[in-house]
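Repro:
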Amino acid sequence: MTLLILDRDGVINQDSDDYIKSADEWRPIPGSIEAMARLSQAGYRIAIATNQSGLGRGYFQQADLDAMHAKMTALLHKAGGELAGVFYCPHTPEDHCDCRKPKAGLIDAIEQTLGCSAKGAYIVGDSLRDLEAGLSKACIPLLVKTGKGERTLLKLTQQPQPALTGLLVFDDLAASCDFLLSQLT
């Protein structure tokens, strides 16, 4: 099985600058659940790596986050897919933890829990911190334009990053699906 790491907000579900605070507010981006199911069925082990500082800020409780992830997992199961795990950082930026992206702590946890290396795995994100976390672990970053993706692309156009030269950009997770499927050997 090939590891695939996905950010959550802005990649799988609609994002909000006001935070996604409940299962009711958690709404999948059209085509994302189906794309995840196709990728899972084709042999990708899908792990979610997501910053959830709303928990640390007190915007929602652990039960709310668990309900969001249960909803996502149930929708994916209904579509015929599986998740290898959901890994999240509950800390605020002021906590200076090792798990908040762009640091690699979440990817370290994925490697340890799943017993595999993230080197060479694809990481799909909508923000620079997603891509940077992946690069620090020798992952191959893919940017989607959903969520904060358009802003990230504009930032990279204005301030190019040598490590992201040749970055592949897709409209959304569904659009990246065919590319990811073509990479399986």
